[in-house]
Amino acid sequence: MAHTLVEKILLAHCDAGDVRPGDVVTVRCDVVMANDVSGPVAFRAMEKMGATRVFDPSRVVMVADHFMPAKDVKSAELQGRLQRWSDEQGVTFYGQGRGGIEHTLLCEEGWIVPGAVIAGGDSHTCTYGALGAFGTGLGSTDIASCLALGSFWQAVPDTIQVELTGRTGAFVTGKDVILAVIGEIGVGGGTNAVLEFVGPGAEALSVDERLAVANMAVEAGSETGIFPADEKVGRYLDGRARSPWSAERSDPDAIFRQRLELDLSVLEPLVAVPHLPGNVKTVSEAGPVSIDQVYIGNCANGTMTDLRQAASILRGRHVHPRTRAIVVPATQAIWREAAAEGLLDQFVEAGAMVSTPTCGACFGGSNGILAPGENAVTTTNRNFRGRMGSPEAGVYLANAWVAAAAAVAGELVHPETIT
Amino acid sequence: MTRVEGVALVVPGDDVDTDVMYPGAYLNIEDPAQMAQYLFEGFDPSLRGRVVDGTILVVGSNFGIGSSREHVPLAMQGSGIRGVVGRSFARIFYRNCVNLGLAIVACPAAADAARDGSRIAIDATGTVEVDSVAFDAPRSSALVLELGAAGGLVEWTASRLSDSRRT
Q: B48: closest CA among B84, B6, B14, B76?
């Protein structure tokens, strides 16, 4: 029987003899992850379940990243509890100064391999599809059950296959690829489905860019976004992967709910304008808008690729006097690499602030909250009303070139206009 | 939990996201009663004053998009909300409600028929009544019904764990 990539992964992780879209199956987890927000809520639920030990400490990872470093007493208590619980259970804990933003971090640390199933207490767990894994976001009670039993219930999703053709032009990145798809199918268009990215355009994207694409699959309502693993993923995982893996892909005669084709060669830099990730326009259509803050970072776009793009614009230029710029490398390792390459100094010289890795202002936690009436260009993944602070602020989602250009111009502009 | 009854409160619009229902700044709160103070904070805080013990929310399409934060359904339960009837739901929000034992059903005809103050009854096996008019809803999968019958995923997992200890 022909199967899609995700059907193959789920079939290998459940006891069913076969799987078809809509079947509800119990899926075994290779990795269970939670953070300082979802973890402590899950621990309470786990206690109510009467579970005292996790199913397998070697498969559980906790990351303090949301309110890290602690923004107030409550946040400090949550992080303390996360650390103590991790010590008691003997699971891996990445705390302040030792990790970074969970999704970028777990890839970097080799927890994610093609074909794996990752249950994450964070909706952007779909990021792991960049490496050919089935990562999916779950709430804290689900995570508690995963911690206790090592499995979760899952309706087998449909697959929407997105064929990427052509090569991206100047100032166009993986961010624009996923914004184009969400703009096309809408914020509910991927519900009960996974987005699978194939074709020469997909193969041409770097691992960093695939992370950006997969990260926002949930913004279309999808269970996950996934790329079949290839040689690029193999090279990325060399010396990094914590478990053996093998690459699969969808059978040619598998049944897809929908097939889309996207020609990357005609794609322009895009933005999602307030207040939905599906409100997608070209930068030229959306601008000019006066910009108060630029935020370059988060689990979607805080990689070396993003930082190099931003630096190529900010190097030797100045952040506009009315604009604040914040750069957040996604992990400690990326921070160090960017420092060694001189990028962090270039950001600071331009008048930007460089932060420690944190989820920070991306979800309105801390580290750059917006005031009423302000507009921000960010490389983050959500622009819901109030997402980064005041409900009267506007967030424009864009790639790192566009964000850096907005920092220099003080308004939303096409990066090619920065001279 | 086979049948849940209550009074409708309409939450207007489609694609209502979890950030407006429970902003990120309050995610460091752990007590559902405290969470209830921030429900709908970024959407329409006045809705809080109209929630009573026994409210059933009536919502549009693709309700609950965004974050996996369980704080939203926990704040709902902490406010006295017993169920949600909508045109359609985002995946994580839907499963969070199922897991927490908060009745949730996608039934466009019932959602369209309900007005503020309508008497609503949700029967998990496949019917929604709005002011005594019955609408067919898609029957939930066997496992979802099992979770509902157990009272939620906490109770369901607890019973799995105690079974495995006995064997």
A: B76
Q: B92 touching A, CB under 8 A?
A: yes
pTM over 0.95: yes
Return phi, psi of residue A261, to 5°. -125, 135
Residue B81 pLDDT greater than 80, yes or no: yes
Q: Which of B18, B19, B102 to mutate to test the interface with A (most CBs of A within 10 A)?
A: B19
Q: Which mean pLDDT values do the consecutive 10-residue runs of chain A (419 residues) have?
A: 97 97 97 98 97 98 98 97 98 97 98 98 98 98 98 97 97 98 98 98 98 98 98 98 97 97 98 98 94 97 98 98 98 98 98 98 97 98 98 98 98 95
* Closest CA in chain B for residue A186: B15
Distance CA A240, CA A110 (A): 5
Please provide the size of chain B in residues: 167
User: Measured between alpha carbons, how far is A234 from A213 in angstroms, rounded to an integer?
Assistant: 19
Q: Which of B30, B62, B95 sits opposite A221 (nearest CB)?
A: B62
Are B101 and B149 in contact by the 8 Å Cβ rule? The answer is no
State how far the Cα of A112 lies from the Cα of A126, in Å rounded to an integer.
11
Helix ranges restricted to H, A71-206: 73-89, 102-108, 140-149, 174-185, 200-204
Residues A37 and A25: their CA atoms lie apart, in Å, by 27
The whole-angstrom distance between A350's CA and the closest CA on chain B is: 30
CA A10 to chain centre: 22
Helices (H) and strands (E) in chain B, counts: 7, 7
Question: Does position B167 have pLDDT exceeding 70, yes or no?
Answer: no
Measure CA of the first residue to CA of the last residue in chain B; give whole Å: 28
Contact B24 A153 (CB under 8 A): no
Give dist(CA A219, CA A382) in Å, integer: 8
Give the closest of A24, A41, A138 to B92, CB-based.
A138
Q: What long-range pairs does B121-125 form, CB within 8 A, spacing at least 24?
A: B121/B3, B121/B4, B121/B5, B122/B3, B122/B4, B122/B5, B122/B56, B122/B83, B122/B85, B123/B2, B123/B3, B124/B1, B124/B2, B124/B3, B124/B148, B124/B149, B125/B2
B-chain residues within 8 Å CB-CB of A386?
19-20, 23, 41-42
How does pLDDT run across A216-273, given as a tens digit for each residue? 999 999 999 999 999 999 999 999 999 999 999 999 999 999 999 999 999 999 999 9
